Each structure stands twice: as C-alpha cells, then as structure tokens.
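hey team, just a heads up i'm posting the complex here instead of the shared drive bc the drive is being weird again. everything in one block, sequence lines first with there labels, then the predicted structure for the whole assembly after. its two chains so it's a bit long, scroll down
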Amino acid sequence: MRFEDELLAYLPRLRRFAHALARNATDADDLLQASVERAILKRDQWEPGTRLDSWMYRLMRNLWIDTVRVETRRGETFVPPEAGERVGATGGQEMAVELGKVVQAMRTLPPEQREAVALVMIEGFAYKEAAAILDIPMGTLTSRLVRGREALMARLGEAT
Amino acid sequence: MTIDPETLMAYADGELDPVAAKRVEKAIGADPALAAQVERHRKLTASLRAAFEPVAAAPVPSSIEAMLSESAKVVPLAPKPVRRERSFWMGAVAASLVAGILAGPLVFPRDPGGIAMRDGTTIASGEVAKALATQLASAQAPDAPVRVGVTFRDGAQRWCRTFESGTTGGIACAQGNDWRIERLYGGMSRQERDYRQAGSATAAMMADAQAMMAGDALDAATERAARDAGWR
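-- predicted structure starts here --
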C-alpha cells in the first residue's frame, strides 16, 4: 500500500488522538493538519516495513509537545476549554460535539499524563508500544498512567 | 499480600503475564475492595473510549484528506515501498533466528496445510481456518489437529487467536471473512497434552500475544459468545 493510502486510513484514529491531546477542537484539527504536512515532508524518514501508525503517533505527539511548551512559556496552559465547540467546521462537514465531562476531565490532566492515558486507554496501545512512542521507560509510563487515571477517577467520581 | 496500584492497573488492562495475573487474582479473591478498583479501571477505559469515539467516527476534514491525495499525485514515489508480504516474511524469519527458536521447519505461504496467500496477505486456510473460526479453547478434542490457545482483541479491536498445528504456531486476527496470519513460529514442540513443558517458541508466541492484547484474554464464556456472534 502506498504511504498516502495507508496514512489516509489512519486519519480517523490520528484525529481522535489529536482531540484527546489538544485543549479544544480547533487546536486538535490544526494539530492533525500540521502532522500530516510534516509526515508528507518527512516521509523518507519512515522505514517501510515498520509500523506507520506508531511513527505518525510519535510525530503528532512531538509536534503537540512543542506547542505545549510554547503555551507554557506564554502562561496559556490554564485557559479553560470552551464548551459546546464544533468539530470539523472545515470542508462543510460539521458535527456538533457536546463536550462530555470525560473530555473536560481529560483536558485538566498534565500533558505527560494526558498523552499516556490517550495512547493506552483511548488508542488501545500496549504499555510497551506506548512507552516506545513516547520514548520513555515502561516504569515511567505506568506511573504516569496510574496518576492520570487516579486524577480522572477522582474528578469523575462514581459517574464513570 | 499487598498489590501496588501499578500492578492492579496493569492487571485491569490485561498487561500482566499469566503468573503475575494469577497472583493478583488471588489477592482480588480475598479483598473485594481490590475487585472494585479493577472494575473502576475498566469502566474508566470504557467511558474514555466512548467519549472520543464520535471523533474517530466523524468524517475527517476534507482539506486534510485533500493534502494527502495531492501529495500522492505530486510527490515522486522515490523510496519504493517494500512489498508488504516480503518484509513480513523476512521479519518473521529474522525474529525466529534472533530468538533462536528455528528448531523446526517454518511453514511457508505455499504450504497447503493451512496457510495461504491472497492479495498479498497471508491468511489461514483449511484446517487452521476452520479451527480458528469454530474451535473453542475450552472444549478441544485431545487429538485435534489444530489447537487454539488464547483469544483476545488487539489494539485495532480485531479478534485474534493463537494456534498450534504440528510444529508450527501462530497468531491470527479476524478481518472480514479471513483470519489474517499476523505471526508464525517454527519449532513448536507439542508435548502431548502437557502445556506446562511448552518450549521457548510457545513462550515467545504467548509473549507476543500478550503484547498485542488491548484487554484481557477471553474466558470460556466470552470466547463462546464471540464465536457464536461470528467474530464480529
């Protein structure tokens, strides 16, 4: 399968990951777009035969971390996410998304916990795979994951 | 016995090896609070997946899709993609060599005994396909030609099963009407009905299956239900 075709098939999943990471839907779709752009530019760095999806998740996550760092410097991290925003406003395909409590709770997590939770719990990666994507040891991954989950449970209470 | 939070979480996610999982199960049996905590972990995973599912189900903004289709037209296909099945086979052989488990012959794609190639992918056929589709690990004849091991869902939510046939073992995942062979292992030594003496090839297969699992391996009841639902 061609690089573009394979990537195309991963777009819905990558978009879900972007929405789990970013603080609102607009930023999420910007992140997806920027990731696809960079993937096209850097396609030669992907080794055929290795997993393109893991490569893309890593690429997107690294782009996102860069923006998080910039925002942190500007002191913008704690801007509350707007409720009732719209997803997919570009291209005429609009879908109103009511931001559930779960999504809101996700956005309150520190970035290093949010990415671990998103990869394992939402994207379904094994611990080993998630640790490889994030380039951290397994032990670091599990401790971030456990703290992220405890924070989510505390926030969502018995509602989960 | 105390179970630390990381271990309990890993258990809830199906990330523990069978021995460690057994130990946690024992502790859970003795402490309802632990059982409740496992339940909370799984519920949280389910609600996170449900919350973000609409994003994956919605159409991707057409501007982003357009970038890819434009790129497919414009960018010269300089690094010719390696043909998939080739890289798969080379990988499988290399992995067996590295692990030092090439003790028996690998079954190659053209072998008529249960593995076939179609449209560039390797799929189960014959007895192997039949066993994967119908056989329950919990109710196998001792002399069944193909034995099914664990059944689980992978990260892509496909049903996957491990199997052994003669000296060959493998992991196959249901896709459409086929069972796609994800991994193959040579040198399975089937010690008659005694799986406790399984060799390193079996151990490698189980470790790979463990790594692919998105949740727990199925128990007998859920395995039956999944089969009866036609592996959908």
